[in-house]
Amino acid sequence: MKIVAFDRKDGAGLGIVEGDQAIDLSAVDAAAPRELGAVLRGAGVAALGAIASRAAAAHKIPLAGVKYRMPVETPGKIICLGLNYTEHVAEGAYKPQDYPTLFNRCMTSLVPHAAPLERPQCSIQFDYEAELVAIIGKKARHLTKDNALDCVAGYSCFNDGSIREYQRHTVQWTMGKNFDRSGSFGPFFVSADELPPGASGLSIECRLNGVSVQKDNTKNMSFNVLDTLLYVTKGITLEPGDLLVMGTPSGVGHGRKPQLWMKAGDVCEVEIEKVGLLANGIVDEVL
């Protein structure tokens, strides 16, 4: 199942994507859920399929022109991985990691598909990072290899936009990873049953102004989704709607010679096979 969150005239809405259209669930049933996080914390996405099964042609809307919202608008936690592809570790002059390198993002740092990313006034070092995000569907702690992937409801695309100058002010990355409106998430939620286990073996690419700048495969993660779930849940309870952002391949602007930074007027695209294409224009911060 592929789900889109979007603006309706009366507020938020959810739709089931069918090709270039979506079934507007609130048009089918005025009592339909309107936020995916609440769905994951409640009856689960199967309940949306039951509503969609009652849809008529009049309940479908074209995706063209839709104003997107983030697939999950109320994640309790956004846990991100750094240094999770071997070639990316090397281009950053780091050593291979023995454990997943974790940091957090906050909601004010994110925008949905087609909304502008914002380069701050204090730095030109605005970098792109194409990433897969796993969306948690069940409360999870002390997972095992046999049940870890059962807690993942689905996947989406993520751009972990980073202000490199501020990321490197200290050994902690929080500041450089959390500038307002510097990252993006979307456009769709794709249920786990539509993809290979752990979303492994999928091509992942970032394009800046149509030019490929990152290209790899999710099978090349140093710590895959299962490994990361096992590690995180040793100490952190994951809850429905939480996001696990799985790190970026090599090719980032910071590692290039000359370095390549996003600037106003650019368009950055993150595309993951079978998951979707997340695109955002770049603007300068206005005080």
Q: TL;DR?
A:
This protein has 287 residues and is mainly beta. Helices cover 12% and strands 33% of the residues.
Task: Give a written overview of the molecule.
This protein is mostly beta strands. It has 2 domains: 2-62, no CATH class; 78-284, Fumarylacetoacetate hydrolase, domain 2 (Alpha-Beta Complex). 12% of the residues lie in helices and 33% in strands. It has helices at residues 25-28, 36-41, 46-52, 86-91, 164-167, 225-232; strands at residues 2-8, 11-18, 21-24, 60-62, 78-82, 101-104, 110-112, 117-119, 126-127, 130-136, 152-159, 162-163, 183-191, 203-208, 211-217, 243-245, 267-272, 276-284. Strands 1, 2, 3, 4, 5, 6, 7, 10, 11, 13 and 16 form an 11-stranded mixed β-sheet that branches. Strands 8-18-17-14-15 form a 5-stranded mixed β-sheet, with no helix packed on it. It has a two-stranded antiparallel ribbon with strand order 9-12.
Helix-strand blueprint:
Elements: E1 2-8, E2 11-18, E3 21-24, H1 25-28, H2 36-41, H3 46-52, E4 60-62, E5 78-82, H4 86-91, E6 101-104, E7 110-112, E8 117-119, E9 126-127, E10 130-136, E11 152-159, E12 162-163, H5 164-167, E13 183-191, E14 203-208, E15 211-217, H6 225-232, E16 243-245, E17 267-272, E18 276-284
Parallel strand pairs: 5-16, 7-13, 8-18
Antiparallel strand pairs: 1-2, 1-13, 2-3, 3-4, 5-6, 9-12, 10-11, 10-16, 11-13, 14-15, 14-17, 17-18
- The CATH superfamily label of the largest domain reads Fumarylacetoacetase-like, C-terminal domain
Principal-axes shape call: globular
List segments where confidence is low: pLDDT < 50 over at least 5 consecutive residues.
Answer: none
Indicate the mean pLDDT. 96
Work out the count of structural domains: 2
The rounded distance between the terminal residues' Cα atoms is 41 Å
Query: How many DSSP helices?
Result: 6
> Any idea of the CATH topology of the largest domain?
Fumarylacetoacetate hydrolase, domain 2
Structural class: mainly beta
Order of helices and strands: EEEHHHEEHEEEEEEEHEEEHEEE
Tally of extended strands?
Answer: 18
Report the portion of residues in β strands.
25-35%
Main sheet record: 11 strands, mixed
Could you estimate the helical fraction of the residues in percent?
10-25%
CATH architecture of the largest domain: Alpha-Beta Complex
Q: Tell me the radius of gyration.
A: 18 Å
CATH top level class name of the largest domain:
Alpha Beta
